[in-house]
Amino acid sequence: MVHVLSSRTLLRPTDPERSRAFYGQALGLAVHREFGTGPERGTVYFLGGGFLEVSGRGTAPPSPDLRIWLQVADVAAVHDELRARGVPILRPPVQEPWGLLEMWIADPDGLRIAVIEVPEGHPLRSRP
To answer: Is 53 buried (19+), middle (13-18) or exposed (0-12) by CB count in 10 A?
Structure first.
């Protein structure tokens, strides 16, 4: 078995500054570390138990098959906060048949992001 010490999702946005503004300011993700210089420098954001690295420059938007899943304590409050910051909401929070409360947003390159609340009593309920 592979013993994983850390992990992160690597994102190569088409416009790194625009993506850093989205993840750092619009979403308000905390910065874990930064590296390099210039417009294509790297910024690593905390994502709960993982990390999102925005670095380099991509030549095309990400695959429509790629998604980011963010679990939050109160999806309704996050909805209101993101809407006030001007983040386009693809779908407001809805309780899904499988019991999760889900909201969908997208980053500037169209990468779909699920913002999830796991309600009390749901089998996935796990908060640090």
So the answer is: middle
